[in-house]
Amino acid sequence: MKARTLVELAAISSTLYTISKDQELLDKLNQWAEKGKEKINAFVKEKSVDENGKEMDFLEKLASRIETSRHDMEERVGELVRSSYDRMHIVHKDEIEKISHQLETLKKELAIVHTKLNKQEKKEA
Q: Which residues pair with 49 in a beta bridge?
């Protein structure tokens, strides 16, 4: 076989491989779309009531779900940030403030001890 023919066969086979992989991706996307449709349909059919016992309409349910999701996401992001700080040994702002307060307290105690030591030296002299 000629080199050109081998290159063309390689190009065709790689193109077919790419198309087959894209088909797998499309199938996966279709599966996700179907699951999403099912969840949306279940959400729309779900009956929800507010604090007053009145049934919520679709937009109210959606707003409520968005607010709950936002709160959950903030908690999860906070946990992830804290855990990443711990893994990377980065000091958080609260810890810096705590250490700074402890340092100020120790400075005050040191000044008191230094004053007492000076008084003690004057008495001995």
A: 55
Range(s) of the domain holding residue 109? 92-125
Rounded distance between C-alpha atoms, residue 114 and residue 106, angstroms: 12
Is 57 found in the same domain as 84? yes
DSSP string, 23-83: HHHHHHHHHHHHHHHHHHHHHHH---B-TTSPBP-HHHHHHHHHHHHHHHHHHHHHHHHHH
CB 43 within 8 A of CB 57: no
Give every CB contact of residue 125 below 8 A, 6+ residues apart in sequence: none
Distance (Å, whole) CA 67 – CA 59? 12
Task: Report pTM.
Answer: 0.39
Considering only CA atoms, give the Rg of the chain: 34
For the chain of 125 residues, list the mean pLDDT of each consecutive stretch of 10. Answer: 70 76 76 86 77 77 85 90 74 80 94 91 82
Residue whose structure tokens are 């893994």: 87
Point out the domain boundary residue: 29, 46, 63: 46
